[in-house]
Amino acid sequence: MQLEELASLVVILLFIVGTARDVRTSFWPKFTHEKTFQHLTYFVMFALFLLWSAQASVKEGLHIHFLALTTLTMMYGWRCAFLLTIPVTAALVVVRKLGVYDVPEYLLLSALLPILISYAIFALSYHYLPRNIFVFIFVAGFFNGGMTGSLHLLLNTLYQLALGVYDWQTIYDNYLILVPLLAFPEGLLNGMALAILCVFKPEWLRVFSDRDYIYNHYHK
């Protein structure tokens, strides 16, 4: 294991420890006692596995696939969302879409950081923008998904540049040039998912509350 892989592993382990309390108090009791929530979680992980399996590799280390992590974060919160990406990543190793030694970097760059970005954009919209359902769908959903997908590619670019694997021109011509093409469908995927959930299954969204986004004018 190389130094950068070891550093990524340390960061991942620290965040796993940091998520333990939330998982133990909020996720695990509900998962073990509610069959509907259990089936939903299995379905979400399977859907995420399918999305991540359908990845295109421009060059080694420069992977492109839909993330759908904005929706995952809105459904489970950032701590539990990160937890759920671990078995999905393990499944990618089993089907040989990912090498064992690539797991720490993959979890860091393609799971943890995008999840943190998604939650940060949601938190900023929650605190600084009007709280209504349209702001949630279009900012925390469409815009958030597109921005998270774009920043994911940018972070991976910076990581590859820092390692000296590729030069800037190679990455730009083969990888960054795809950002505009991926931002819109990533935003559309997450925005439509959140719109459907807001209307039909708002109880599946951990960060969504009728009190905040629909009836907030009664509490001013």
TrEMBL record:
Record keyword Transmembrane present: yes
GO cellular component: plasma membrane
Keywords: Cell membrane, Membrane, Transmembrane, Transmembrane helix, Transport
Membrane among keywords: yes
Source taxon at top rank: Bacteria
Membrane topology: Multi-pass membrane protein
Classification via Pfam families: CbiM
One annotated GO biological process: transition metal ion transport
Membrane-crossing residue ranges in chain numbering: 36-54, 66-94, 106-126, 133-155, 175-200
Name of the protein this chain belongs to: Energy-coupling factor ABC transporter permease
Organism: Vibrio furnissii
